TrEMBL record:
Amino-acid positions noted as binding substrate in the UniProt annotation, renumbered to this chain: 5-6, 92-94, 159
Domain of life: Archaea
Recorded coiled-coil stretches: none
Cofactor requirements of the protein: FMN; Mg(2+); NADPH
Stated name of the protein: Isopentenyl-diphosphate delta-isomerase
CDD domains: IDI-2_FMN (cd02811)
Record InterPro entries: Aldolase_TIM, FMN-dep_DH, IPdP_isomerase
Principal place of residence: cytoplasm
Provenance organism: Cuniculiplasma divulgatum
Residues bound to Mg(2+): 160
Function summary: Involved in the biosynthesis of isoprenoids. Catalyzes the 1,3-allylic rearrangement of the homoallylic substrate isopentenyl (IPP) to its allylic isomer, dimethylallyl diphosphate (DMAPP).
Entry's family note: Belongs to the IPP isomerase type 2 family.
Classification of source organism: Archaea, Methanobacteriati, Thermoplasmatota, Thermoplasmata, Thermoplasmatales
GO molecular function: FMN binding; isopentenyl-diphosphate delta-isomerase activity; magnesium ion binding; NADPH binding; oxidoreductase activity
Length: 352
C-alpha cells in the first residue's frame, strides 16, 4: 500500500493539475535598480546554512522514496545535488523504517557527494495512530542510512485528512517534536499549507534548527489526494479534497512571521529563479524546489541540469537588477507587496 501510494503521488504530481489557484510569489515585485552598481560575474550566491557552505541557495526538496521509480528519481536528483553543490532532502522515509528492503531507494544518494542530506519523517508518525509511534531506534537508523545532517519532521495533516488511509490523531505532536529537537538537528517542514504565527512560535520554542515554510501557493496535497480518493471511490474524501484545495497560509506570509528569528527555507510554489529571489527577499536562507525539478527527473539528468541552470541564471539576473552583490544584500532589496498577499500582509501588520 505504501509503495502504491508513493508512486501515485509522483504520477499525479507529474501529470495532473495540483496547484493552488493562486501563486503568492507573484504578489511580490522586486524594485528595479537602473544603476545596480554590481558586476554580474562577481555576484556571490553562496550561503552558509548552520555551518554548511553551499554554492547556491537552493534545496532539492523532499519528494519521494520507497519505490523503484523513486530510486531512479532520487539518484538523478542526487547527481544534480553533487554537480551544483546544493543540499538534498528525501521523501518520507517511513517506508525504509518499516521495510528494510526499500532502504536502497533512499540510500542510493550516498553514491554522490552532496553538501548535506536531510532525512525525513512525518509528524503523524511521532504519535500513536493505528500503529505504534516511530521509535528512536528507527529514527537513528534512518539518519545513519543516508548520513543525514538534519532531520526533517514534516507536517501534512491537511493531506492526512483527505487521504483515504490518512492518520487522524495530532494530539501530543509538539511534545514529541520538542523531545526530538533536544537530540537531533530538526527542521520543521510543512507540505503545502504553511505555518501560522502560533505554529511558528511553538516551533521556535521547541528549539528546531530551521523552518521550511512549505506554504500555500504551489502543489497542494489536498488536490493530489482528491485524485486518489476519486479513483478509489472515496466520494466524501474526494469532495473534501476539492473543498480544501486552497487551504493554508501563503508561503511568503510564513516567512514574514518568522522575520529572521530562525533560519527559514522558502518553499511552496517556487517555479524559477525570480521566485527564489522573492523568497530570499522575504527572509529565506534558501529556497526549496520540488515539482519544478520532478518533471522528467525519472527520465533524464539533463532535464534536471537544465532546470537548475535556468533557476541559477534567473536568480543572478534578479540579484543584478536589484543591486544585490550577495544573498544578504538580496534580503535587503526593496520590494512591493500587492494583490492577495497584501491583504494577508496587512492583517499580520495589524497583529504585530
Amino acid at each position: 500500500m505504501i509503495e502504491n501510494r508513493k508512486e501515485d503521488h509522483i504520477r499525479i504530481a507529474e501529470g495532473k493539475e495540483v496547484n493552488a489557484s493562486h501563486n503568492y510569489w507573484d504578489d511580490i515585485t522586486l524594485i528595479h535598480r537602473s544603476i545596480p552598481e554590481v558586476d554580474y560575474d562577481s555576484i556571490d550566491t553562496r550561503v552558509n546554512f548552520h555551518g554548511n557552505m553551499i554554492d547556491y541557495p537552493i534545496l532539492i526538496s523532499s519528494m519521494t522514496g520507497g519505490t523503484d521509480l523513486a530510486k531512479k528519481i532520487n539518484e538523478n536528483l542526487a547527481w544534480a545535488a553533487e554537480k551544483f553543490k546544493i543540499p538534498m532532502g528525501l521523501g518520507s522515509m517511513r517506508a525504509a523504517a518499516e521495510k528494510k528492503e526499500l532502504a536502497g531507494t533512499y540510500s542510493v544518494i550516498n553514491n554522490y557527494k552532496i553538501p548535506f542530506k536531510l532525512a525525513n519523517i512525518g509528524a503523524p508518525q511521532l504519535i500513536r495512530q493505528d500503529k505504534d509511534a516511530m521509535s528512536r531506534e528507527k529514527i537513528d537508523y534512518l539518519m545513519e542510512l543516508i548520513d543525514a545532517k538534519f532531520l526533517i519532521i514534516h507536517f501534512n495533516f491537511l493531506q492526512e485528512m483527505i487521504q483515504p488511509e490518512g492518520d487522524r490523531n495530532a494530539k501530543g505532536v509538539m511534545e514529541k517534536v520538542k523531545e526530538l529537537a533536544a537530540s537531533y538537528p530538526v527542521i520543521a517542514k510543512e507540505t503545502g499549507a504553511g505555518f501560522s504565527e502560533r505554529d511558528i512560535d511553538m516551533l521556535i520554542d521547541a528549539n528546531v534548527k530551521a523552518i521550511d515554510v512549505g506554504g500555500l501557493g504551489g502543489t497542494t496535497f489536498a488536490a493530489i489526494e482528491y485524485y486518489r480518493a476519486e479513483r478509489q471511490g472515496e466520494g466524501e474524501k474526494a469532495i473534501a479534497g476539492k473543498t480544501f484545495w486552497n487551504w493554508g497560509v501563503p508561503s511568503p506570509i510564513s516567512l514574514k512571521i518568522i522575520n529572521g528569528r530562525i533560519p527559514a527555507i522558502g518553499s511552496g510554489g517556487l517555479r524559477n529563479g525570480l521566485d527564489l529571489a522573492r523568497a530570499i527577499s522575504m527572509g529565506a536562507s534558501m529556497g526549496g524546489f520540488a515539482r519544478t525539478l520532478l518533471k522528467g527527473a525519472d527520465e533524464s539528468r539533463e532535464s534536471i541540469e537544465k532546470n537548475i541552470n535556468a533557476i541559477i541564471r534567473e536568480l543572478k539576473i534578479a540579484m543584478f537588477l536589484t543591486g544585490s552583490g550577495n544573498v544578504e544584500d538580496l534580503k535587503r532589496a526593496d520590494k512591493f507587496i500587492h494583490g492577495e498577499l497584501k491583504e494577508w500582509s496587512d492583517y499580520y501588520d495589524r497583529r504585530f
